[in-house]
Amino acid sequence: MKKIIIALLAIIAFAGGYLIYYNSLPIANVNGEKITVYEFKKALGATDKKIQGVKNQKINGKTFEEIYKEQLLNNMINEKLMLNKALKEGIKGKNDADIINKLIAKETSYVGVSDDEIKKYYEQHKNDYIYADIYRIDLKDEKDADNVLNMLNEGSNFSDLAKKYSIDTATKDNGGFVGNLSLSQYSATINYTLTTNGVTKVKLMSGIYEIVKVDNVGTKSLDNVKDSIRETLLEVKRQNALKDFTDSLRKNAKISVNNLLLNNVK
Questions:
Q1: Between 62 and which of 49, 66, 68, 104 could a Cys-Cys bridge form, CB atoms 3.0 to 4.6 Å apart?
Q2: Per-residue pLDDT, 178
């Protein structure tokens, strides 16, 4: 019995030693600095919930999990390159993330958006700025939904029917009012064509029968959405500038990746 216990302890010790060795292996080398299996597993564990349910879906022959891990490792490589660049330039901060953010702010500070660009974007995306008051009535049974729709068509008040029949607790007490929303965005969500004032036909949505009312349709002016468009365009330009910057860092760096380790990390 004593020999069996000793043998088991030896196996456990070996397994523990191997795990330490495995976690210390470099999954990537960046200018001679390691990104270890342990570091990658830690980063993966912090974000893994984001891809639950879609891990095994395939895109161009690769699973979503494989693509996600490649992107995560590329981000870690970029962060290591940016941190080293920032430290060489004497940038200081509260932590590594703060230092990297200060470097990014510096490298993208030249980005700007002109009024002409904002106006052009507005004209090209004018449909996105058609807003309306959206109301809805949700019902479990198709027959009930048809009955409510008939009552609406006969002139009954939408808000009164929503308070009485809708099972959507978030909106029923407000007469079914969802909010003043972009028609194009809401239409895409529920697969409706919402363009005019009025009530839609019954639509089956995730097991719920839904009736939607559209009211007070109008297009927001350029002045009303100018600031949000500026932020949208600035963010796109910042991301493009950041990509150009990290691409230049990678071009002058020595980077190697152990794809076998990368694919097997869980």
A1: 66
A2: 92
Q: Are 230 and 118 in contact (CB under 8 A)?
A: yes
DSSP-assigned letters across all residues of 5-23: HHHHHHHHHHHHHHHHHHH
Q: Would you place residue 61 in the very low, low, confident or very high pLDDT band (cuts 50, 70, 90)?
A: confident
Q: What is the DSSP string of 97-120?
A: HHHHHHHHHHHTTT----HHHHHH
User: Which domains, ranges and CATH numbers included, belong to the chain?
Assistant: 1-107+234-266 (no CATH), 126-219 (3.10.50.40)
**Contact predicate 121/229, CB 8 Å:** yes
pTM over 0.90, yes/no: no
The backbone region for 61, taken as left when phi is positive above 0, alpha when psi lies in -120 to 50, beta otherwise, is: left
Tokens of 123: 């004209």
Please answer whether residues 222 and 122 qualify as being in contact, where contact means their C-beta atoms are separated by less than 8 angstroms.
yes
Q: What is the pLDDT confidence band of residue 15, given thresholds at 50, 70 and 90?
A: very low
